[in-house]
Automatic annotation (TrEMBL):
Residues 7-73 form the ABC transporter family G domain. GO terms for molecular function: ABC-type transporter activity. Keywords: Membrane, Transmembrane, Transmembrane helix, Transport. GO terms for cellular component: plasma membrane. The chain crosses the membrane at residues 154-177, 189-211, 232-259, 265-288, 295-318, 387-406. It is a multi-pass membrane protein. This is Uncharacterized protein. It is found in: Membrane. Residues 138-348 form the ABC-2 type transporter transmembrane domain.
């Protein structure tokens, strides 16, 4: 198991290592105390210069790039230059296996290892160790990602602060809406449009999720530190919980009651889950763009273009039935349309509206407003199919993100 890797450690760090295990061309060329490594190589013809970093010297030796310095060493005589590195590594391996260090290590292994009869078989241990390894990978990568997230408190604080601010702002703008046919309906539709737009564009903060760590992911994954699925799951967990779930809860709790939507428990939770899945769906769009594009500016422009294009088909800015047929298909991938339908059906179902006069006549059914907006609401399925559609968009975008991460690994 690789705990961590140190790239080009300086001498002060190198001295902290107790034991070294050096591998060249897949063969062990040294295993023993760090303090003995330089004297060992000096004894077989590989002298580390006085001002040279021992770590760099050992890397060169392992790769077969370092020439022996002792005049008595004839290991390169008669060897083709193309095979020189391999011959040096073979020489180092043979020299180590003949050393007292190798004998001591072998004796320790024989003392520590159990007899073959008591050793568990490969079939007994492999499934459990694989399962444990994958869970351990997810745990440690998630832990590291969370630490990195909270080392940048500005993003978490800003995302939470903006949600609270916008919740209060929209609450003050549409505070305790009345039930009049003109103003009440207009304000409700305006509040819905404002909330959906805020949730979608507010999720653009997820764009740098994979862009920032792209070189690190490529290096660690190709080096076998963890699986692609491990990294993918860890990043989702650490983005969704602090940056999507908490802001959605705060925004819903503030905006819903300040605006004056229907105060029933069921409608509030439908509202919250609508806000939440809208945020997740928009974030998943950013995930796939982030995994596909290396430059943040290009990613930002790509996601913004998609959002603006699908915003037109939300049902607020244009009558969808009037759009030409070769463009009308865009409505099926519009997060704005499905989210707006959820909030409109949730609010206008069971709502009674009053005529704009002093008669206090409030017998106009909110379903009539939904019909005017061409929003189907005759059955309960008409509400939940919008949740299913957003869930489908979320699933498709996450699948594409995972595929892009796999492709990123192959193009290393």
């Amino acid at each position: 198991t690789i705990i961590f890797s140190i790239h080009q450690p300086r001498y002060s760090i190198f001295k902290l290592f107790d034991t070294l295990f050096l591998v060249g061309a897949g063969r062990c060329i040294y295993h023993g105390p760090t303090a003995d490594v330089l004297p060992f190589f000096a004894s077989i013809g590989f002298q580390c210069e006085e001002h040279e970093n021992p770590a760099d010297f050992l890397l060169d030796v392992c790769q077969g790039d370092y020439q022996p310095t002792l005049s008595s060493s004839n290991i390169l005589e008669g060897i083709d230059s193309d095979q020189q590195n391999t011959q040096i590594v073979n020489y180092l391996h043979n020299a180590y296996t003949k050393s007292t260090l190798y004998t001591a290590i072998k004796q320790q292994i024989n003392e520590l290892c159990p007899s073959p009869r008591s050793s568990p078989t490969l079939t007994d241990t492999t499934p459990k160790s694989l399962k444990k390894s994958r869970l351990s990978e997810i745990f440690y990568v998630s832990q590291r990602t969370l630490r990195n997230t909270f080392r940048n408190p500005a993003l978490v604080g800003m995302q939470t602060g903006v949600s609270i601010f916008l919740g209060i702002l929209i609450g003050l703008i549409y505070i305790q809406m009345d039930h009049s046919l003109n103003i009440g309906v207009k304000n409700r539709l305006g509040a819905i449009f404002f909330m959906v737009t805020n949730q979608v564009f507010g999720s653009l903060s997820a764009l740098d999720l994979f862009i920032k760590e792209r070189p690190l992911f490529k290096h660690e994954n190709v080096s076998g530190y963890y699986h692609v699925s491990t990294y993918f799951i860890a990043k989702l967990i650490c983005d969704i919980i602090p940056l999507r779930t908490i802001p959605a809860i705060l925004f819903s709790a503030i905006a819903y009651f300040m605006i004056g939507f229907q105060r029933t428990v069921a409608k509030f939770f439908i509202f919250f889950f609508g806000i939440y899945i809208t945020s997740l769906s928009a974030s998943s769009l950013c995930f796939v763009v982030s995994a596909s594009v290396e430059v943040y500016g290009v990613a930002n422009l790509t996601a913004a273009m998609f959002c603006v294009l699908t915003l037109i088909f939300s049902g607020f800015l244009v009558e969808i039935t009037s759009v030409t047929s070769f463009l009308s298909w865009i409505k099926w991938i519009s997060i704005f349309r499905y989210a707006s339908n959820i909030f409109a059906i949730n609010e206008f179902t069971g709502l009674k509206l009053c005529l704009p006069n002093d008669t206090n006549t409030c017998d106009i059914d909110g379903l009539d407003i939904l019909k005017e907006q061409n929003i189907d609401s005759s059955t309960n399925w008409d509400l939940w199919k919008n949740f299913v559609a957003l869930g489908g968009i979320l699933f498709c975008f996450l699948t594409l993100t995972y595929i892009q991460l796999l492709r990123m690994k192959k193009t290393k």
